[in-house]
Predict the 3D structure of the following.
Amino acid sequence: MPFYVLRRLAGAIPTLFIIVTLTFFMMRLAPGGPFDSDRRLPPEIEANIKAAYNLDKPLITQYGLYLEKLAHGDLGPSFKNKDFTVAQLIGTGLPVSLKLGLSAMALALLIGTLLGSWAALRQNRWQDYSVMTLAMTGITIPTFVTAPLLTLIFGVYGVAIFGHEIFLPVSGWNGGAWRNLILPVTVLALPQIAVIARLMRGSMIEVLRANYIRTARAKGLPAWRILFGHALRAAALPLVSYLGPAIAGVLTGSLIVEQIFGLPGIGRYFVLAALDRDYTMVLGVVVVYATLIIVLNFLADILYAVLDPRVRLT
Amino acid sequence: MIATGSTQNAEALVRIVKGRSLGRDAWARLKKNRAAMAGIIALTLIALTAIFAPLLSAYRYDEINYDLVTCAPAWWPQGASCIAPGHIFGTDAVGRDLFVRTLYGARMSLAVGLVATLVSLLIGVVYGATAGYLGGRIDNLMMRLVDILYSLPFIFFVIILMVMFDRNLILLFVAIGAVEWLTMARIVRGQTISLKQKEFVEAARAAGVSSAGIVRRHIIPNAMGPVVVYVTLTVPGVILTESFLSFLGLGVQEPLTSWGTLISDGAAQMQTAPWTLVFPALFMAVTLFCFNFIGDGLRDALDPRDR
């Protein structure tokens, strides 16, 4: 196990390196720059600005300089928001995105597991069919449709539908108050709930056929003890390997959700920064997201080994 | 007498057994799956209306009419500020006909779905089959690369690409396709590894067929089952990715349109003009449902073990 951890950590560095290199050169190959504007700057001033940000040096030198700074944990200054460093901007956005994403993951895991198990226990009955229809809907309807729909339901037509005012805020962060979290987290979690419910149903059906479950039944254990004491843990295993894609899905979804609900997370910064050609900001966000994905995937693998004694990490 | 009788029986048996190929078997199973068949029919309808869109509407997709700005269709139940007779889905913010634009959106979304899937299919099949067939250290190296690529936040690269290179359509197709090939490569590799130990591959090798020939003529055709299933599930994924980009304003550009662009426009004015959101969203949802149903049906039909 310790060897495995070391090897995985060592493997993360080249991955990050590839990501940084790809992003860096992709941005620079593209036309346009951060200081292009409708008003042309006098050439002396432009040269000064470029010199200040090292943009006048050859590309390969800039790349070297960036890597050197990055190795020291310095993400550089933001080209557009001149009074802030990239680290400061990410520092304000990351807690928002993290809270949003992790809440959505937790919600998806809880509800998805429960729905999937329930469907498996009632296989081929109406409960099963309705859960699976719901899951198919959740997979099919994209985030950017559910978000405006929920906004309509709770924000605009709330009184008409429920008969009284609904006080769910449809935009803004408000310091992360739970009321403000409900809608964005739900929207973000829905597609994941759907996938997890489907996975869970499949594996639960398989587990319920296993011999040790039959033994437990024969011993006369109550249904809830069979489910929570024996079946759930084994059936939840395939979910762990889905955690990686799920994390990527939630991150992608958060780009949309943060925009629609007007939340100050880093997903929203990213799109704006790319449009502004704010090189350092884009690179910074990519580095942070990539690190996050790598770390979370790593944790998922460890979790897998902890939950399943048959898996040996070497 | 007895001998000829048994020969006849055997011949009759052969006749009966011969009639069912694997493909026909699968098709018979698929035909029994109502959801999948409904999906095929609905999808064909949507595709046909998309292809013949110019013939189906009296309006052009980029025909602007400032007299009918965001008007509801005549049959819209709620009182809208203005009504556009003759526009069965109403009009958008510059008075363009929403029906024909939804169909043009279908054209774009389906085209992206098919082309990008084709790109991913091409890369994934060649890569996966090569890795699986060669095996050993080359396989290890190639799949390790796939693992690394898996952990990249790809959507960010696509976003950067789209921003940097001015929303070039061809680039959009290729970029999305290049993202989706990884799973395809894994599936094909797994199939290849199990296939290459089969007798007919050994026979081909004994007959002196080259490696490339074996991969092309024997491995790839036999690995097609799961690939077909995955393709039908990739198309909706690609359509979603494209509409995601279009929603962020990074996809197809005006006056061309796609479902993502239409939904984005519709979401912006859904309080005053819900019809601008409802129709494109409905079309997209139905299409995605169809592909998912067909994919599930094909999986059941092609792989009876996995039900």
In short: The radius of gyration of chain A is 24 Å.
